[in-house]
Amino acid sequence: MQNPVDFGGRVAVVTGGTRGIGLAIAQAFLAAGADVVVCGRTAPPSLPSAAGRSAAYLPADVRDPGQARAVIDDAVRRHGRLDVLVNNAGGSPAAAAATMSPRFAEKIVALNLLAPFYLAQPANAVMQLQESGGAIVNIGSVAAHQPEPATAAYAAAKAGLLQLTRALALEWAPKVRVNHITTGLIATGSAAPFYGPDGGAAVARTIPMGRLAQPADVASACLYLASPLAGYVTGADLAVHGGGELPARYLAARPADPP
């Protein structure tokens, strides 16, 4: 039987694909045989690579609709098609809701909600014309379901991304499948300062799986959702969060117990 996660001859665009989770996603698709295009505001010191192949890089601020469209157009010019779009670019520094500036809020919503829409529109236009259609995967966050202090704009934007996923899945089926991944706490360099001086050991106790996620955990989920294995899956929210978090009352009552 043909390998269902063989992406040979397929083309994938991964936003924010030069570091962290996006880098792992780009490498996973390269290893699976895809031609990969990544984009970001700053050129990386080295390109994502795997299986002796490297991704192509495009400089872009995907919060700008014109630059977002140009990423899709350039990928199609390079490779003649587009099969997968992974909207990975996102994030936010902590900011108190009471003092957050309008400019800050607008930028966070633009990056985490509007940019995926700006990219999805031209991607859908290409995919609808292909016999094989295509797949869009939006990388979300547990903040959409359970926000923390100082994440108001980010959590609201990620909640919007989840609903955007469901709305696009309704409109663009059956040719284009649109799915969402709810990511949990992930061990990346940029996130490390938020997990405490112990490298996240205490935080890991709050997760049923007993560890922080690795970027490769999210990358594997992307491969699944973009592959024929998920051929009847659209509008879904796939939780990649290790079981969520143990209830605060449980941890308060058993501070010394393992998860």
Can you walk through the features of this model?
This protein has 259 residues and is of the alpha/beta class. It has one domain: NAD(P)-binding Rossmann-like Domain (Rossmann fold, 3-Layer(aba) Sandwich). The chain is 37% helix and 17% strand. It has seven helices and nine strands; from the N terminus they run βαββββαβαβαβααβα. The protein has helices at residues 20-31, 65-79, 102-127, 152-172, 201-204, 215-226, 248-253, and strands spanning 11-15, 35-40, 49-50, 53-54, 56-59, 84-87, 134-141, 176-183, 237-240. The strands form two sheets. Strands 5-2-1-6-7-8-9 form a seven-stranded parallel sheet, sandwiched between helices. A two-stranded antiparallel sheet has the order 3-4. α1 (20-31) packs across α6, α2 (65-79) packs parallel to α3 and α3 (102-127) packs parallel to α4 (152-172). The radius of gyration is 18 Å and the shape is globular. The model has no long low-confidence stretch (mean pLDDT 94).
Task: Give the gist of this structure.
By secondary structure, this protein is an alpha/beta fold.
